[in-house]
């Protein structure tokens, strides 16, 4: 299973040149960029761990790529995404978000069905990655 979250999720994996082009676009629009990582990519888990601080006052994507490579080296088996924020509305709004790294093996999700009163059924997702403890979800 291939996790589909964020912009470009249905395209093939982005190269570093593709990532740099998207970061350059964000910087030209005056959108600060941040890098986040997680080992729990559930669709409702919107609060990923932030790598460092948001990268303000950059003109070129080289600084973002350097931080991205440091995050990749530290967390080689985690999901990593790049976010760009647009503050033109007077509040922090995500303008662009895309995954730049995935673990080598993505275990996927299970659909759980619960039967309730009056023959109603409720559905929910259970990620197989949560069967292991944090830090051990994608191997060592």
Automatic annotation (TrEMBL):
UniProt feature, compositional bias: Basic and acidic residues: 105-121, 129-140
InterPro entries noted in UniProt: RuBisCO_ssu, RuBisCO_ssu_dom, RuBisCO_ssu_sf
GO molecular function, one term: ribulose-bisphosphate carboxylase activity
Protein's GO biological process: reductive pentose-phosphate cycle
Top-level taxonomic group: Bacteria
Domain (Ribulose bisphosphate carboxylase small subunit): residue spans on this chain: 4-103
Keyword annotations of the record: Calvin cycle, Carbon dioxide fixation
SMART domains assigned to the protein according to its UniProt record, in alphabetical order: RuBisCO_small
Pfam family for this entry, one: RuBisCO_small
Keyword Magnesium carried by entry: no
Renumbered residue ranges of the record's region Disordered: 105-140
Function as written in the Swiss-Prot or TrEMBL entry: RuBisCO catalyzes two reactions: the carboxylation of D-ribulose 1,5-bisphosphate, the primary event in carbon dioxide fixation, as well as the oxidative fragmentation of the pentose substrate. Both reactions occur simultaneously and in competition at the same active site. Although the small subunit is not catalytic it is essential for maximal activity.
Subunit comment: Heterohexadecamer of 8 large and 8 small subunits.
Miscellaneous: The basic functional RuBisCO is composed of a large chain homodimer in a 'head-to-tail' conformation. In form I RuBisCO this homodimer is arranged in a barrel-like tetramer with the small subunits forming a tetrameric 'cap' on each end of the 'barrel'.
The family this protein is said to belong to: Belongs to the RuBisCO small chain family.
Protein name per Swiss-Prot or TrEMBL: Ribulose bisphosphate carboxylase small subunit
Organism name: Nocardia huaxiensis
Gene: cbbS
């Amino acid at each position: 299973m291939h996790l589909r979250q964020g912009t470009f999720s249905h395209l093939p994996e982005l190269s570093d040149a593709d990532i740099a082009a998207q970061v350059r676009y964000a910087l030209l629009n005056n959108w600060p960029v941040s890098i986040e990582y997680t080992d729990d990519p559930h669709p409702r888990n919107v609060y990923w761990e932030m790598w460092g601080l948001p990268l303000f006052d950059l003109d070129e994507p080289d600084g973002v790529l350097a931080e991205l490579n440091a995050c990749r080296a530290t967390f080689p088996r985690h999901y990593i995404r790049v976010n760009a924020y647009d503050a033109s509305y007077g509040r922090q709004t995500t303008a662009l978000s895309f995954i730049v790294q995935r673990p080598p093996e993505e275990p996927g999700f299970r659909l759980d069905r619960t039967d309730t009163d009056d023959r109603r059924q409720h559905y929910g997702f259970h990620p197989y990655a949560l069967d292991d403890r944090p830090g051990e979800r994608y191997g060592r």
